[in-house]
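Title: Comparing notes on inverse folding

I've been comparing how different people in this forum approach sequence design from structure. To keep things fair, I'm posting one structure and asking everyone to reply with a full sequence. Here's the target:
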């Protein structure tokens, strides 16, 4: 199976990204042909600092590898280095109904958040994402819940193109984890954990033990003191989900373990669990610090491999549309 997924270079990779997406990537890379992309062009659609973008891209590559993506097995590359993505995005825009783009939840939320000088890139964002996916004849797109709607749109776009011009694209399938597809913010459990949130709301994969402790102990929990998963108790339910996924134990077992114990004791145990679980990531990242050249080589090699994979599809799309 061909697997494709991506992550934006801005902001830190947090445990939501890990549990929703990267953990699946690591499993999938064992038996599939995986292509993982650092989507720098998508990151330009909201305010960012051009001076630090390249640094963030290198850091993100290190994070991928530290988290367990093996560059010898999987293709890792930067979106803007493979120009076929932007070309295909234009071609796909021809079959994308504006009404579908207007429905996108992420667009509506971001348009509200970045009202001033609202740009067309933000509106067209899902077309570029569809191009990312369709360019590689992708079967599976492992993502968190918030990206499911965009993958569904990529399917619609593939179908419309195939109907109008003849079979060109594989229809991809989103793959969400059974649990952890939407990890909530630690400071506001009504909102999803997000890189653009304040750092109190998320735990980065590389946070120090001190930061982990402070963020978990201060995390917002609900009134009451029972350690019990319940849809009405968003804070404690979110922490239980995180506990369960890092310990690989069912929630019921954790509830039992903390029966008649308070939030503080549960949180302390979660702090220890997270410190231990994230320690290998911190160590692995250290190994790569200062190895900029090696990282750049991985990305260059990745872009070459990606371009080879992309060529037949872009040629086919151009030909079907009468461009060659
Ligand atoms: P991004 O960079 O916002 O997030 C990267 C991945 O992490 C998942 N994720 C979460 N999962 C669980 N809980 C959360 N709180 C949480 N927050 C984020 C996201 O669902 C995503 O899988 N548009 C995409 C990047 C992209 C892409 C693609 C993905 C561009 N082209 C093609 C797949 C295929 C994005 O902004 O992800």
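Reply #1:
Here's my take.
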């Amino acid at each position: 199976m061909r697997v494709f997924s991506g992550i934006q270079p801005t902001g830190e990779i947090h445990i939501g990204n890990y549990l929703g997406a990267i953990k699946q990537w690591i499993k999938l890379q064992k038996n599939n042909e995986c292509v993982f992309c650092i989507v720098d062009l998508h990151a330009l659609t909201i305010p960012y600092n051009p001076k630090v973008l390249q640094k963030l891209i290198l850091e993100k590559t290190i994070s991928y590898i530290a988290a367990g993506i093996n560059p010898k097995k999987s293709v890792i590359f930067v979106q803007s280095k493979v120009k076929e993505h932007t070309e295909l995005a234009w071609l796909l825009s021809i079959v994308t109904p504006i009404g579908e783009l207007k429905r996108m939840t992420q667009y509506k939320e971001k348009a509200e958040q970045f009202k001033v000088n609202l740009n067309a890139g933000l509106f067209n964002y899902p077309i570029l994402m569809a191009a990312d996916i369709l360019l590689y004849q992708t079967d599976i797109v492992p993502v968190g819940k918030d990206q499911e709607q965009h993958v569904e749109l990529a399917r619609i776009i593939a179908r419309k193109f195939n109907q109008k011009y003849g079979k060109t694209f594989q229809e991809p399938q989103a793959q969400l984890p059974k649990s952890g597809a939407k990890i909530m913010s630690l400071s506001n459990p009504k909102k999803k954990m997000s890189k653009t949130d304040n750092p109190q709301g998320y735990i980065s994969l590389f946070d120090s033990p001190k930061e982990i402790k402070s963020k978990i102990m201060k995390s917002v929990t609900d009134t009451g003191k029972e350690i019990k998963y319940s849809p009405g108790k968003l804070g404690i339910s979110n922490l239980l989900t995180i506990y369960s996924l890092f310990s690989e134990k069912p929630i019921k077992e954790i509830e039992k373990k903390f029966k008649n114990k308070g939030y503080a004791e549960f949180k302390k145990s979660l702090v220890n669990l997270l410190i231990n679980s994230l320690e290998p990531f911190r160590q692995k990242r250290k190994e790569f610090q200062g190895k900029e050249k090696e990282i750049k080589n991985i990305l260059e090699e990745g872009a070459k491999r990606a371009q080879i994979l992309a060529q037949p599809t872009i040629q086919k799309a151009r030909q079907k549309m009468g461009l060659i």
